[in-house]
Design brief:
The structure is a homotetramer. In chain A, about 75% of the residues lie in helices and about 0% in strands. Chain A is mainly α and about 190 residues long. Chain A has one domain. In chain A, helix 1 packs antiparallel against helix 2 and helix 2 packs parallel to helix 8. The longest helix of chain A is centred in the middle third of the chain and has 28 residues. At the A-B interface, helix 1, helix 3, helix 4 and helix 5 of A face helix 1 and helix 2 of B.
Chain lengths: ~190, ~190, ~190, ~190
């Protein structure tokens, strides 16, 4: 079975997720620059969430690039990932509208955690389906970054209850870690085995 | 006529349907974990609807994979299916916001029923158009599961008026029935005649 | 220049237009079947608009199928069509929420009129660009139906001011006229010159 | 790495941006033509924003047409552009709802400015990646128009504080400047080196 529709559907869902988040930036009732100030936390939350959804699209793009066929299990592992991604706009808005209070920051981390777990499951399903694809298996060495992210999300959730800003900063750190391009995959792609 | 635009358009509509449902999860006014509790029924409704829309995308993907050309009737049978699917976010939100009360649960079942009927019509239009395509005709053996679903939806609608939770549980049962992959189609796809 | 991205972008915009209209079906505050009754006009409006947007997608699909290359003018003629289509959800909601009152019904017709004009312009731009493409020129014989629609829309707008329901019925008539498949194009497609 | 998914994802995001802007046209409470009058500024703002997003889609389409492979940096330069484009609906609504008051008009210009900067960065990343691609380098001669736009946006922002309508008019001028097709790229496309 081809992968193009899976990619197209995932692109569609991720494109909608990344775009509807901006609807949380409610148009201010006043017409002065000062009326934008209360929106700053929502905007900050939007920026981080935009980057996270962008990272997932990017990694999804890279990972599926290495895959040639997909199974029924892949379709569901992919929908499972899209499900958790679809909750990012909700926790992002909750976190922004309450100025990074403890519970929303922890909930934001919990959704990021579930996204990371769902991504790892998808990676596993893809490698199980074609174990001979060493390029992919190697790319899944990306696992290491995945597990580190999971550890940092759990730390972020735990820390956000007493110190929400520390939790938020940990999520920022994970995002920066992923923004740095994964040299291993790039190398594989430019120099396929 | 090619089928790629039909697939692309259907992917787009289904991707939007599955994603705008999350807009029903209204951001809580409070910033405590307890403020999430009133959202639980809406969340449960969202999970079931996400799975249903995912099942339809999955089956649509499989069925069109077996088809090579499409007619004008196919386009309209497909739009008819998309119409009923587009009402899932509405009944899903109604059901969730009223904690699975009788009328919303029955209405949810009625929309699921119409989606199933529309799917069967689409399958018929596709086989009528290329009767020689045995792989497809066989896949439409999926009919059996389709008719069983229709019977269960009708039972669910009838039961939901006195006992809404029983109706809801029947819809969950149908979803689980479809989550189990359809071995016959998968086999065909891996081993095409 | 290829046409695939033009098709993909148009599919995306039309898919979103057809789907966001359902957001006008506001979830009722009550949980009884009676609470659905006030939604009936909005629902009727949604059904007609869904069919119209479906007709445009269908015709767009057919027309571009006959085209091989596109110019810069095509891109803008296409965006012009998408602009007027994007206003259908707005007038559709206005018409539905005010139970088919005179001004909203006339405004609905005016938007349908502009969509039809924009479609004719797009068809002209496409034929001008490749006059040798007789299949297309012939398909644009579809013009006749287009001009008849325009006349009926104008009649509908004029009649809707004293008799809004007559205006609405005229729009329904035009939709039915388009739902009947255009045999000429279908024949061309199955039997290309 | 192929560019088709990058195009598909960008098409999806831009299609959503251009379409959700229409949600800012709130359905009037009254059913008379006069009830549309207060919407006129929002409508004017929508028209300009629709044209701008259309211009970006158009240029994006042309520019990527000339590119054959993309790097990881391209993906992020592209997401950066989509980020600023995603804020157009927000500033567009703010500007429309406050009848082109000073601060919203300046903010609108600031977002247009950031979009233009992000577009130039994307163009640079693309040429850096394949310096030998003269067709592209030449098209980026489009730079000149880009830098002129940036100058006009800055003038528009500065002027909009005392004279918001002048600022708005400058943005209209820039849009008209881009609506005129870029002959150089069109020529290249029809007559590739």
């Amino acid at each position: 079975m081809g992968k193009s529709r899976l990619e197209a559907f995932s692109d569609g869902v991720i494109a909608i997720i990344i775009t509807i988040m901006v609807l949380e930036l409610k148009v201010p009732h006043g017409a002065a620059f000062d009326d934008l100030i209360p929106l700053l936390p929502v905007f900050g939350s939007y920026v981080l969430s935009f980057i996270y959804v962008g990272i997932y699209w990017n990694n999804h793009h890279h990972m599926l690039h290495l895959v040639h066929t997909i199974s029924g299990a892949t379709l569901w592992a992919n929908l499972h990932l899209l499900f958790w991604l679809s909750l990012i706009p909700f926790v992002s808005a909750w976190m922004g509208e309450h100025q990074f209070a403890a519970a929303p920051v922890a909930a934001y981390g919990a959704i990021l955690l579930m996204c990371a777990v769902a991504y790892l499951i998808l990676a596993r399903v893809l490698t199980r389906h074609q174990p001979a694809n060493r390029a992919l298996a190697d790319a899944i060495g990306m696992d290491r970054k995945g597990w580190l992210s999971i550890a940092l999300y759990i730390a972020g959730i735990a820390l956000s209850l007493p110190l929400p800003l520390i939790g938020f900063l940990l999520y920022v750190v994970v995002a920066i870690m992923w923004l740095v391009p994964d040299r291993r995959i790039e190398r594989r792609l430019h120099d396929p085995a």
